[in-house]
Structure formats: C-alpha cells, structure tokens
C-alpha cells in the first residue's frame, strides 16, 4: 500500500512539474507557435459550435416567447371580454340612470312614488323583473316618462305581469285635447298596437294628431298620462257616438326601463 | 482511455463555447472519486492543456489545478464517509470551491456560488454514469445452487 502511495505521489509530482514548466514556457512565449497552430484548427470548430448553440438557443427562446405570447394573448382576450361585459353593464346602468332622470323631470318624485323595473319579456302581456317583494301591487299604473304603458294584472314575489293599454281587457277613461276643446271617451285596446276611443259625443271636437290622455277616474291611474295619438276619426251621422283610432306614441319593445307608480 | 480523451476534448469544447459549467473538472473529479488510478493524473493534465488552448489562458495553470483536485479526490476517497454515494456531492462541492478559489488567485476569475452548486449537483449523476461505463464489461458471478448430497 505504501509502495502504491509512493508511486502515486511520484506520478503526481512529475506531472505537476511538467505543468509548472508549461506555465513558465507559456509565460515566456516559447509555446506561442504550437499554440497558434492548434488554435488555427480549434477556433473554427469553436466558432461553429458557438453559432449553432446560438441558433438553438434562439429557437428555444422563440418557442418560449411564443408560448408566453399565446398565454398573454389568452389572458388579454379574457380581460377584454371582462371589460366589454363590464362596459355593457355600465352602459345599461347609465341608460337606466338617464331614464330615471328623465322620468324625474316629467313625473316628480314629490308627487309620485316610482319604482323602476326592467322588461324581461313580452307577448300579450309585458313582464317585468320586480314583484311583490319590491312593493308592487295589483292595478298599479306602469308608465314611461309621462306615457301610460299599462296596469299590473298579476304579481308574484319576483315578477309582475302588465296588462298593456292596447289589450282589450283594459278600458280606460280618456280625453283628447286640442285648441277647439276637449273630447272625452272610453279607450279600449284592439290588440296589435292600436286602440279605439269610443263613446265620443259628436259635439266634442277631436282631430287626427290630437294627444289622448288618461282622465284619472280609475284608481291607481293618475290624470294626464299620455296614452297615444289620434290616427283616425270615425264619425257616422246615424251613430250616437263617434270613435277615434289611437296609436301609441312609444314602442314598448324599445323600452329598457319602465316605472311603476306605487303611490 | 481513448474514450475519456475524446469525451474530455468534447467537454472542453462545449465548456469554452456555450456551456457555463466546468464539465472537464466534473468528469475528472467524479472519475477520481470512483477509481483511484494513475490514469486520472494523465487525464487531468490533458484536460488542463486542452482547456488552456481552447480558452486562450496559460497552458499549465489548469493542469496544476486539475492535478491538485485529483490528488485531493484520491485522498478524500479513502475516508469512511465516502461509502455513501451522496457524499460525492459534498466532496465535489468542496473541490469546486477550492478550484474557484485558485482560479480567482491565478486567473482573476470571480467566484460564482450558483455555478458551483450546479456543478456539484451534476457530479452525482456523472459519478453513476462513469461507474456504469467502467463496469460494463465486468461479468457478475451467477448464483449457483448447491445440492446437498
């Protein structure tokens, strides 16, 4: 064991001395010629390897950047969708607020207690998203600005059904106003978008273009709400009363918000 | 030996072009820890000279550093703790740290602890690969059943 240890150390010392000799020889530039000859061969190889490694690294970097860009793109698309959704909600709220402000100008909150509601469906009846939980009751008037939309015909806790002014089941006492005077009658729905004002005396003046208002004789429907505009006057000499066709001034399908007069 | 000379040449090329780790020293230290042979000294000198040429530094410096590492590895190998294979990582860390210190003195290179940790981590799989490679021709004795008469 000692012999192998000594042999080992001897080899170590010899090789270390060779290294020291090489160090001094290189310091004194004795090895510059053989070094330059060998480097003429190794430098192009090193250059080729370096360039190839750069290309490979660029490819991996491209893949990594593509992946990151794809993830960022996905996140940005999600963010954009969230912002668009938020924007839609904000725009809706803004239009509701504007409608509420407009409503306040026409029907003052000091005179009428109003609850706003969104239409959620329409067929024969208009459905809104508020119900008895929100303080709504049967027969309350539904308006938009100073236009009468209809009357609540059914109430559930979260939803209500509105009987429209154009529904034949709703009869409202109304009057038409023009410079010549006032004409009173009973307004009945005809389905579709037309209404018929009946029981108008021949002596009372009514013309096409006159606005028709609520008389206010029904409970819960105040006086002075616009129901529609006279589109045709039907007058026959042999009839006791004359009639007038009335068309609504607003399209219910365009409404984003309606108001219920609770008091 | 020819295989290791070729591998050390390749390792020196990779080390001086794009890899930031000291591959040559990893191979030399792990081989010295695996087998105590005079061949390790020759490989260390060769690696030192090749590295000196490829990195345009003084030819003999790396030779001296690598030879010192081989000698220390042979001495540390004799300790009882080296029976556990994971001590390769600890011994490698110490030797890399010593090498970095010597490089700082002779070559004015700064010490990079992160690089030393990476090299220490690589030394264990390298040690296992070298053991597998060197023992590939060793025939394991078959278990024979003895029939009692």
Automatic annotation (TrEMBL), chain A:
Give the GO terms filed under biological process for this record: regulation of cell shape
Entry keyword Metal-binding: no
Q: Which residues form the Rod shape-determining protein MreC beta-barrel core domain?
A: 115-261
Key word GTP-binding present in the record?
no
Enumerate the UniProt keywords alphabetically.
Cell shape
One GO cellular component term of this record is: plasma membrane
Q: Which family does it belong to?
A: Belongs to the MreC family.
Q: What is this protein called?
A: Cell shape-determining protein MreC
Q: Which organism is it from?
A: Candidatus Daviesbacteria bacterium GW2011_GWA1_36_8
From TrEMBL, chain B:
Query: Which key words tag this protein in UniProt?
Result: Membrane, Transmembrane, Transmembrane helix
The transmembrane residues are 6-29, 41-65, 85-107, 116-133
Keyword Transmembrane tagged: yes
Full protein name? Rod shape-determining protein MreD
Q: Provide the taxonomic classification.
A: Bacteria, Candidatus Daviesiibacteriota
């Amino acid at each position: 064991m000692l012999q192998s240890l000594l042999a080992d150390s001897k080899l170590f010392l010899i090789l270390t001395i060779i290294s020291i000799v090489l160090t001094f020889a290189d310091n004194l530039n004795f090895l510059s010629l053989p070094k330059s000859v060998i480097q003429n061969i190794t430098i192009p190889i090193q250059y080729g390897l370096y360039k190839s490694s750069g290309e490979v690294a660029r490819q991996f970097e491209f893949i990594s950047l593509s992946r990151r860009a794809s993830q960022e793109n996905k996140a940005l698309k999600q963010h954009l969708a969230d912002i668009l959704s938020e924007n839609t909600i904000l725009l809706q709220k803004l239009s509701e607020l504007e409608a509420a402000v407009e409503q306040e100008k026409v029907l003052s909150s000091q005179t009428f207690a109003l609850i706003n509601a969104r239409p959620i469906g329409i067929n024969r009846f208009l459905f809104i998203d508020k119900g008895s939980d929100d303080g709504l009751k049967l027969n309350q008037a539904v308006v938009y600005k100073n236009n009468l939309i209809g009357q609540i015909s059914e109430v559930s806790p979260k939803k209500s059904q509105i009987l429209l002014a154009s529904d034949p089941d709703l009869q409202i006492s109304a009057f038409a106003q023009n410079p010549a005077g006032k004409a009173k009658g009973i307004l009945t729905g005809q389905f579709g978008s037309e209404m018929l004002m009946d029981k108008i005396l021949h002596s009372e003046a009514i013309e096409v273009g006159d606005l028709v208002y609520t008389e206010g004789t029904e409970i819960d429907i105040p006086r002075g709400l616009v129901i529609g505009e006279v589109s045709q006057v039907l007058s026959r000499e042999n009839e006791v009363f004359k009639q007038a066709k009335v068309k609504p001034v607003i399209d219910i399908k365009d409404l984003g918000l309606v108001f219920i007069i609770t008091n | 030996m020819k295989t290791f000379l070729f591998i050390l040449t390749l390792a020196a090329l990779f080390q001086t072009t794009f890899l930031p780790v000291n591959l040559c020293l990893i191979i030399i230290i792990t081989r010295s820890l695996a087998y105590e042979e005079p061949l390790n000294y020759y490989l260390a000198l060769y690696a030192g000279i090749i590295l000196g040429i490829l990195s345009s530094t003084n030819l003999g410096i790396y030779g001296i550093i690598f030879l010192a590492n081989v000698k220390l590895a042979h001495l540390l190998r004799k300790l009882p703790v080296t029976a556990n294979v994971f001590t390769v990582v600890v011994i490698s860390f110490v030797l890399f740290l010593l090498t970095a210190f010597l490089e700082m003195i002779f070559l004015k290179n700064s010490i990079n602890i992160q690089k030393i940790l990476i090299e220490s981590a690589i030394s264990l799989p390298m040690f296992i690969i070298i053991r597998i490679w060197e023992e590939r021709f060793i025939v394991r004795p078959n278990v024979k059943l003895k029939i009692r008469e």
